[in-house]
C-alpha cells in the first residue's frame, strides 16, 4: 500500500511539474521576453537612410507587381493583360519575369531587414535611435500599395474563394459540394480553381462565405472585380492588425514599432496576406482586436461593472467571429478565459466561471452566424480538408514522408500514408500538451496571455498536418507583441526571410531551367546592388544599433 501511495505521489508530482504548476518560473519560455526601453527618434543622417530604405522596399514591391502581370496567379479566363502589346510581354518572357519577381522579393526582404535596424536595433540589443510610429506607418503603406493593385501572387486560393462563394450564392451547400459539382466543369469560376480543390467542399467558416456570398452577388462571374473585393477584405484585416498590435505590445512592455516591424511589415504579410489575398489576414485582425478588447476589460478596469462586461463580451464576440473565418483562432478564448479567471482569483471555481461565460457567448455567436447566414454547421466537418496536401513545412508530415521515402529506397515499400497516420496524431497530442501548459502559465501569472497565446499557436503551426508559408503568421504576429529575445527574434526573422524568397509566384508551374536561370540572375543583381550601395545604406551595424541608455519601459508585463 505504501508503494502504491508513493508511486501515486510521484506521478502526481511529475504531472504537476510537466504542466508547470509547481515551478517558480517558466524559464524555457520566459527567456523569450524582456521589457524594451524608450529611446530617442532618428537623427538627420538616419532619416536620410530611412528614406533610402523606404524607397528600396517600394522599388521591390513595384518590381513584384510588374512581374505578376506575367507570372503571378493570373486567372485562366478574363485575364485583363492577355494579348495587350506592352503588358502582355511579361507573360511571354517567363524566365525574365520570374527573375524580376525574385529580385523584387529579395529587395523587399533586404529593405525589411534594414528597417529592423531602426526598429529593434539587433536581435540581442536595442536601437540607439528608433523610428517613430508615423514613419513606420508611412513606410508600410508605401510598400503595400503596389501589391494591393497587382494580380494575386504566390497562391490561387482567391479563385477558390470566388467559386465557393458563388456556390453559396446559388443556394447550394458549399460544405457538401465542390466547384465542379456546384457550378459545373465549364463554369468560368471553376476553371480558375486549382485542380486539387475542384471537387473539394469549402473548409472556411460561415462568416467568410456569408461575406463572400455578398461579394458574389455584387460581382457575379466578373473575376477581376471579385479578386479586388476579396483583397479589400484582406487589407481590412491588415488594418486591424496594425491597429491592435501596438496596443497589445504596450501591455507587454514592447515598443509598438518593434511589434509592427516584425508583425505587420513582415514580408510574409506583404507577399501572402496582401499579395496572396488570404483570408488569414481578416482572421488574425479580428482575433487580435478581440484580444485587445478583452484585455482592456480584464487588465484596465478597476471593477467589473456593466461597461467592463460589455467590453469583455464584445471582445469575445470579435474573437468568435474570427473563428468563423478560420477555426484556429478560437484558441485565443482559452487564454482570455485564463486571464479572466486569474482576475477573479485563479482558483478552479474562477476557471469554471470564466469558461462558462466565454463558452456561452462564443456558442451563441457561432450559432447566430451559422443560422442567420443560412450555411448551417457543415463547416465543422470540412475543417480537415487541407490535410490532403503533404506540406514540407509541417514537421510530422515531413517526418512521415521522409521515412516513407526511406522505406522505398530500402525496398520495403511505400508506407508513407501509414506513417502519416502515426506521426500526425502524435504531433497533435504534443501541440495540445504545449497549449495546455501555456494555459496553466497564463492562469498562474507566469506568462502574459498574449505571449502564451503566441507560443501555443507556434506549437500548433509547427506540428500542424499542413503548414503553408502564411500559417507562420498565426504565431509570429501575436508573438511580435511579446517576445523580444534573440531566441525568438532570430528564427522569426530568418525563417520568413528565407521562405519569402523561395516561394514561387504561382506555385510550381515553372521548368527547372527557368527557376535556376532566374535564381542565378537574381543573385547576381542583388549582390551587385549591395556592393554598389555599401556606403549609402546601413548594411553594417556600426553607428545604427547600439545599447540604449537606461530609460522607462513601454509597459508592465504580468
TrEMBL record:
Topology of this chain in the membrane: Multi-pass membrane protein
Localization annotation: Membrane
GO MF annotation terms: glycosyltransferase activity
Top-level taxon in the UniProt lineage: Bacteria
Cytoplasm is among the record's keywords: no
Segments passing through the bilayer: 55-76, 96-115, 136-154, 223-245, 257-275, 310-336, 356-380, 392-412, 418-440, 452-472, 512-532
Keyword set includes Glycosyltransferase: yes
Keywords, sorted A to Z: Glycosyltransferase, Membrane, Transferase, Transmembrane, Transmembrane helix
Protein family (similarity comment): Belongs to the MptA/B family.
Name of the protein in its database record: Polyprenol phosphomannose-dependent alpha 1,6 mannosyltransferase MptB
Amino acid at each position: 500500500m505504501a508503494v502504491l501511495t508513493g508511486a501515486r505521489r510521484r506521478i502526481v508530482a511529475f504531472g504537476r511539474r510537466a504542466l508547470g504548476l509547481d515551478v517558480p518560473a517558466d524559464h524555457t519560455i520566459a527567456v523569450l521576453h524582456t521589457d524594451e526601453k524608450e529611446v530617442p527618434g532618428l537623427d538627420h543622417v538616419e532619416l536620410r537612410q530611412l528614406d533610402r530604405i523606404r524607397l528600396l522596399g517600394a522599388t521591390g514591391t513595384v518590381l513584384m507587381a510588374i512581374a505578376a502581370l506575367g507570372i503571378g496567379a493570373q486567372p485562366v479566363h478574363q485575364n485583363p493583360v492577355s494579348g495587350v502589346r506592352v503588358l502582355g510581354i511579361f507573360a511571354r518572357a517567363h524566365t525574365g519575369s520570374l527573375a524580376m519577381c525574385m529580385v523584387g522579393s529579395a529587395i523587399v526582404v533586404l529593405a525589411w531587414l534594414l528597417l529592423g535596424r531602426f526598429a529593434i536595433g539587433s536581435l540581442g540589443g536595442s536601437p540607439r535611435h528608433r523610428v517613430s510610429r508615423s514613419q513606420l506607418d508611412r513606410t508600410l503603406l508605401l510598400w503595400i500599395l503596389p501589391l494591393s493593385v497587382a494580380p494575386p501572387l504566390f497562391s490561387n486560393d482567391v479563385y477558390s474563394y470566388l467559386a465557393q462563394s458563388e456556390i453559396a450564392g446559388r443556394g447550394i451547400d458549399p460544405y457538401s459540394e465542390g466547384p465542379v459539382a456546384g457550378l459545373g466543369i465549364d463554369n468560368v469560376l471553376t476553371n480558375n480553381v486549382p485542380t486539387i480543390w475542384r471537387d473539394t467542399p469549402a473548409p472556411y467558416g460561415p462568416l467568410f462565405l456569408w461575406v463572400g456570398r455578398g461579394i458574389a452577388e455584387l460581382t457575379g462571374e466578373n473575376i477581376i472585380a471579385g479578386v479586388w473585393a476579396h483583397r479589400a477584405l484582406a487589407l481590412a484585416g491588415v488594418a486591424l492588425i496594425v491597429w491592435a498590435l501596438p496596443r497589445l505590445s504596450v501591455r507587454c512592455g514592447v515598443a509598438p514599432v518593434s511589434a509592427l516591424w516584425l508583425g505587420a511589415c513582415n514580408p510574409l504579410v506583404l507577399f501572402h496576406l496582401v499579395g496572396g489575398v488570404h483570408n488569414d489576414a481578416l482572421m488574425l485582425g479580428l482575433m487580435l482586436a478581440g484580444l485587445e478588447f478583452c484585455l482592456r476589460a480584464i487588465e484596465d478596469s478597476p471593477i467589473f461593472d456593466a461597461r467592463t462586461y460589455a467590453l469583455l463580451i464584445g471582445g469575445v464576440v470579435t474573437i468568435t467571429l474570427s473563428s468563423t473565418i478560420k477555426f484556429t483562432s478560437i484558441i485565443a478564448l482559452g487564454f482570455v478565459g485564463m486571464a479572466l479567471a486569474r482576475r477573479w482569483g485563479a482558483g478552479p471555481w474562477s476557471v469554471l466561471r470564466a469558461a462558462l461565460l466565454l463558452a456561452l457567448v462564443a456558442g451563441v455567436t457561432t450559432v447566430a452566424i451559422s443560422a442567420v447566414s443560412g450555411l448551417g454547421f457543415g463547416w465543422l466537418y470540412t475543417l480537415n480538408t487541407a490535410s490532403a496536401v503533404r506540406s514540407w513545412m509541417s514537421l510530422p508530415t515531413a517526418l512521415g514522408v521522409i521515412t516513407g521515402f526511406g522505406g522505398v529506397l530500402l525496398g520495403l515499400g511505400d508506407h508513407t500514408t501509414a506513417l502519416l497516420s502515426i506521426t500526425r496524431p502524435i504531433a497533435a497530442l504534443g501541440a495540445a500538451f504545449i497549449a495546455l501548459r501555456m494555459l496553466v502559465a497564463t492562469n498562474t501569472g507566469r506568462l502574459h496571455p498574449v505571449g502564451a497565446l503566441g507560443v501555443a499557436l507556434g506549437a500548433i503551426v509547427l506540428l500542424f498536418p499542413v503548414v503553408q508559408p502564411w500559417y507562420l503568421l498565426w504565431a509570429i504576429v501575436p508573438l511580435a507583441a511579446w517576445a523580444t529575445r534573440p531566441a525568438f527574434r532570430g528564427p522569426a526573422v530568418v525563417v520568413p526571410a528565407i521562405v519569402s524568397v523561395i516561394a514561387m509566384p504561382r506555385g510550381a508551374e515553372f521548368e527547372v531551367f527557368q527557376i535556376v536561370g532566374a535564381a542565378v540572375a537574381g543573385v547576381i543583381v542583388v549582390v551587385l546592388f549591395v556592393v554598389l550601395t555599401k556606403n549609402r545604406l546601413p548594411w553594417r551595424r556600426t553607428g545604427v544599433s547600439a545599447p540604449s541608455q537606461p530609460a522607462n519601459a513601454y509597459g508592465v508585463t504580468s
